Amino acid sequence: MKKYLFWLVILSLVMGCTPKKKELGEENTESKPAVATQIPDFIKIRPGDKIVLNSPQVFWEVTILLNYEQKKWLAENTNTNENISDEEAYLYLQNKREEFFQSLGISEDIYNQYSFDHYQKIQDFLEKNPQYKEAYEASQNL
């Protein structure tokens, strides 16, 4: 059950971050919303910081930062290429995710494995630290 829940979260992160295609003939009548880049102050990790993924706190900081970064990448990609296919957007995001994890000195596999190995600690940390839960939810609703 834990593995199923984890993969559901990962899948929703990846799939929830793909741009929507415009209908034929639909004009761009609304301006694109600015991506909120205000990462909470208690999130100390930034892209390029080398980390050791050894605690739930580090895991959640990486997760929240990844959400903010994905929204930024999508905004950059859709601003420069309006006619991008779903496959191109997916590949672009995968490449950016790989770069993101490399910049932290870990791989996505290490990140995923940590979540499997320490699932209960990760959930307990979130329950005891509501500011992280709020930040995580906010990072998904940008």
Tally the beta strands.
0
What portion of residues belong to β-strands? under 5%
N-to-C SSE string, H for helix and E for strand: HHHHHH
For the sheet with most strands, the description reads: none
Name the helicity range.
55-70%
> How would you name the oligomeric state of the polypeptide chains in this document?
single chain
How big is the Rg? 16 Å
Q: Overall pLDDT, averaged? A: 80
**Shape assignment:** globular
The separation of the N and C termini measures: 28 Å
| SS field, number of helical segments | 6
Low-confidence parts:
4-9, 14-36
Question: What class, by secondary structure content?
Answer: mainly alpha
